[in-house]
Amino acid sequence: MxxxxxxxxxxxxxxxxxxxxxTDRAQLEQVVETFRLSLIxxxxxxxxxxxxxxxxxxxxxxxxxxxxxxxxxxxKVNKITPGASPVKFIDSIVSDKVAVEEKFDNxxxxxxxxxxxxxxxxxxxxxxxxxxxxxxxWQLVRTTQGWKINSVIWSMEFNPEKPPKKAP
Length: 168
Known about the structure:
Layout: H1 5-12, H2 22-40, H3 44-49, E1 58-62, H4 64-72, H5 86-95, E2 100-111, E3 115-126, E4 129-143, E5 146-158
Parallel strand pairs: 1-5
Antiparallel strand pairs: 2-3, 3-4, 4-5
């Protein structure tokens, strides 16, 4: 058979990605669960053990719809979270007097055994109030101490409904 060079080059650039092994999938799912529980329990030590370092990229992006909503109310917001870091994030969770939970849905995991990506839909809740939601992606590396989160990026859509007033 004769193949044209352009067609051969086109099809040779596509590869089939292997699904993570059952062991990797279970370990990566455990990272997600430990992250979730560390927020609920306000457990900074457990949270920090999940990270490759304290200075990993930690970038939130505010959705245009939410920026417009805040600006229409006379507020100001940056498109990209300025000065965000995992340490500032967990410190804000630990110091918050209200129960906090990040909920994960539609979790997708891809890995070759040494690097991985976890991608999911999330909602961030303070008490019974769903304050923001969007999509989140983590990149992870497998170290001799297990899987470690090496970067976190997420989009944020803020709830247009204000949180309920506290009883006097």
